[in-house]
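Summary for the funding panel

The consortium committed to producing paired sequence-structure records for every protein in the target list. Below we show the first two records in order, beginning with the earlier of the two.
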Amino acid sequence: MTTIRKAVFPVAGLGTRFLPATKAVAKEMLAIVDKPLIQYAAEEAEQAGIDTLIFIVGRTKNSIIDHFDKAYELENELALRNKDALLKIVKDTVPEGVNCVFIRQSEALGLGHAVLCAEAAVGNEPFAVILPDDLIYNDGDNCMQQMVDVYSKHKASVIGTQTVDMSESDKYGMVGGPKVEDRLSMVDEIIEKPAPAEAPSDQAVVGRYILTPAIFDILKTTERGAGGEIQLTDGIAALRKSEEVFAYSFEGMRYDCGSKIGYLQATVEFALKHDELADEFKNYLQALDM
């Protein structure tokens, strides 16, 4: 296929780094200003032309399912009060023509296993994987749109990457390979969380992928790797032995909202871009006596 129609969102994790906030609420439902992380991710997919959103959820993630469900009572109440702008916001949570699929991951066996859970819904076509913890902002084409454009040109799997300090290589999957064009390289090597001396380059894998369906058969036989989990990076390492895989260093700013400091940075910077809040919030920050 020449386009990407489906995106997988692995959202079954427990979010332990944000306890107690995530004791009863999915971490992907934590808001950046007035919108939950999972909605930023969904909108990125939709803006890239994706019309089927596949959520891999755990048993504690009902709030995600509820968020993308139709809220009849809320919509009726807003309509009766002539709150048209708010009604549009609620209805646009799932735009017309976009479908949501929810699949339960019964065991937390890693990102590779979460992706494998989506096989029946994806079928025999290329698909995107988006990790909502990685919130990526760009004034122009968003990260997934950039990667869809790369896929359309090369018809091969694409991994989103970012340059990181080599001292942080043990926090990421790291890739290496020859440069093909500006921001694009072949993947010759991909290693999950290597020590700095073993990292193949300074390019770290972030939470954006476009994968061919060949990855599913590979993941079925992928043994547990780092952390005792089925690692998607191990599956991709095997995939590149039979077909081309590219690494794309995306344009944009990434916020690691899986960490508290990244979450706070995103909250502040998105508030400073917010149409209603930017000026007032900027004045507040300037007035702080630190």
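The next record, for a separate protein in the list, is shown here:
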Amino acid sequence: MAYQLYYWPGIQGRGEFVRLALEEAGAEYVDVARGRGGVGAMQRLMDGAGATHPPFAPPFLKDGEVLIAQTANILLYLGRRHGLAPRDEAGRLWAHQLQLTIADIVDEAHDTHHPIASALYYEDQREEARRRAADFIANRVPKYLGYFEGVIERNPRGDGYLIGRRVSYCDLSLFQLVAGLRYAFPRAMARLERGFPRIAALHDQIAARPNIADYLKSKRRIPFNEQGIFRHYPELDVAR
């Protein structure tokens, strides 16, 4: 039975981290909300219809009778089932820890264009966004990328991955993070990435993997746009 992935249609958002794992695994899945009536079905599950443990928000994944919400939680589940995480418990927890750290910077990237409230339009908080984005680029992005650069460097088995010698869902998520930051802040990232060669190499290595390369060229890959997490507003792209 195919997985059922529920996420808002028209944006990559947090659902994209799950899509990348499913695509790399070659798993059959349906992107439910992109089909007719899919948004309504997604909202009914969020309202608790037919769900013992209803999700708060998408993304969530249905696998038969199992319903799992939260991006990192979904990837924890898929990683074990599809060989995208270490087999031992310590390794799985390490992968989960890395994914949660990626989730932290994703939240901060979102808040560069919505620093006051998600319910407000970007235009209602533009001045605050400029200040938040400047700090994000100057301080937060280097801090996070420096951390992941160090994780790759310290990986005892090498091969340029975050964990061991095989690709994990964390590598796929770091690829998506870099792709999103490049879209949102192209000028700043062109400067910053020179200091993190291992991360840049990992991004290119993931993009070249056969299943991922096919996905990136397909219509299943929703383009970045100004409705998602990573948004390109030129006035926020500060390159110092």
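Regarding this second record: Residues 89-209 form a domain with the Glutathione S-transferase Yfyf (Class Pi); Chain A, domain 2 fold (CATH 1.20.1050.10). The longest helix spans residues 126-154.
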